[in-house]
Amino acid sequence: MTDRLDYGTTEDRTMPAVAYALYFLAFATGITVIIGLILAYVQQGSAGAKMRTHYAFLIRTFWMGIGWAIIGLLLFTVGIPLSLVLIGLPMVALAWVIWALLGVWYAVRLVVGVIYLARDEAYPRPYTWLA
Length: 131
Known about the structure:
Blueprint: H1 14-25, H2 32-44, H3 49-82, H4 89-118
């Protein structure tokens, strides 16, 4: 018995594609990412080695995105009342920068993931911070 994962077989890409689509729809709805996350968690256990990397990538994308969104929200929440005395303006501006960069980061990660999925390849670094 070996510990080597067999990436040579063809696996069903439908459910990871649906999860990616739900993540993309979150740009318009905001809530479909939760459905995609649940789908990724449910399907992860029964997926083959290649598709499991995509599910891990999607799950990690969600949690890292939520973490940065909360940091932005905290900066914004503290910065708004402090902006009355002008010291909160940099905090509010930083919150907007974080959210803008988060949107770009999220979109790039999803596009790269879809490219690997379309090529029927495992995601090579599902636990990376970048794409």
